[in-house]
Amino acid sequence: MARAVSETHGEILAAAARRFAVTGYRGTSLQDIAREVGCSKATVLYHFANKEALLAELMAPAIAVLQDLDDQLTDLTGAAAQEVAATGFVDLAVRFRREIAVLRGEFPELLCQPPFAHIQRISERLRDALAGHSDRPGPRIAALVLLAGISEACAEFVDIPDDELRAALLTLVRRAIEPVDAHLPRQPTTEDKDS
Amino acid sequence: MARAVSETHGEILAAAARRFAVTGYRGTSLQDIAREVGCSKATVLYHFANKEALLAELMAPAIAVLQDLDDQLTDLTGAAAQEVAATGFVDLAVRFRREIAVLRGEFPELLCQPPFAHIQRISERLRDALAGHSDRPGPRIAALVLLAGISEACAEFVDIPDDELRAALLTLVRRAIEPVDAHLPRQPTTEDKDS
DNA sequence: TCAGGGTCTGACCGATCGGTCAGGCATGCT
DNA sequence: AGCATGCCTGACCGATCGGTCAGACCCTGA
């Protein structure tokens, strides 16, 4: 055997992503991942400190983008925040379909752990922004339905091209979201989104 | 101890519903349920043949209503099917919030078992009806987003009164769904959308 | 009084989980 | 040659899982 470290490391990561997306984090054993890679379970635990560290490394890119989106939202309010939240999350969900699928349904206990503790707060702020920071139940419910539904849709429609899926989701969100200010029409808000 | 059979039976059912809704089916052990009831794990398995039977009995009422909704949809097309699917599913999701929460995220393996095998087909038909039986990706994606999002929202907003939640969800669905022309069933407006 | 059925339990089972550990096997440097 | 280092593995560990089983504890009816 004796492959290059980066090679095996990456293979394990890819295999874990595939298995997690199908059977979930809890529903996938280290043995399953090792079998898919073609190595032993001990090898998996040689490259990753434990199962949770494997998940953390798998989610890191998506979490980084989510963090960026959250940073952008801190300075925005009203319709601008709605627009950035909508386009930002749709883009993120489409790009990281597989990672989103992993987290689907494993929230309550998994996201309380240290590596993911702040995700819940970020997603709450995201939902708040999408609801136009309204405290009425209508917009808040709509925001949750859309965010959760988009995650599910991205996890399900794996065979649709990125841009087509993104366009359909954005159209849906724009139609479904109540603009926060009636007299202030929704506009693209071409904020410079440097990365 | 020695409570009446129906009493303990119901208590186990209620405790299981509570635990499943929080930690999921796979994430809840029979020991957890027994601890919440205040009896032994063996007692749980005295009242229910196995863990899956416990889940099946828990979901039976919701599944029955879902089956009814599916039956109603078989004779409908176009806008009528959309309307019935929307109101029917929103009503179902609001009424069976806790049961919906259980199934959230445990789909791929759990719903393949005999007691739940037909749920997937029903939910596909439901999604199809909500999409106005269109084969364009836009409506189909929108239908999935809404169905999944509604499930998630009902599982999350446990403290909102039924009618308020139902009203908000129906408003959202009506705004988000593209109404299909009643006199033109399935108009192929897809003008070279392929990639 | 006693038999019998319904209810409940502790003890136990095999399987599987995440994780540890000592050591094998290459490779490369001195 | 000798040694160190990185990669990998089989064997093993304690914990927990779903599930089984013999028997204890009621209550009731004969």
From TrEMBL, chains A, B:
Residues 6-66 form the HTH tetR-type domain. One of its GO terms (molecular function) is transcription cis-regulatory region binding. SUPFAM superfamilies: Homeodomain-like. It holds the Pfam family TetR_N. This is TetR family transcriptional regulator. It comes from Micromonospora arborensis. Residues 29-48 bind DNA. The keyword Transport does not apply. InterPro entries: Homeodomain-like_sf (IPR009057), HTH-type_TetR-like_transc_reg (IPR050109), HTH_TetR (IPR001647). It comes from the Bacteria. The keyword Chaperone does not apply. Keywords: DNA-binding, Transcription, Transcription regulation.
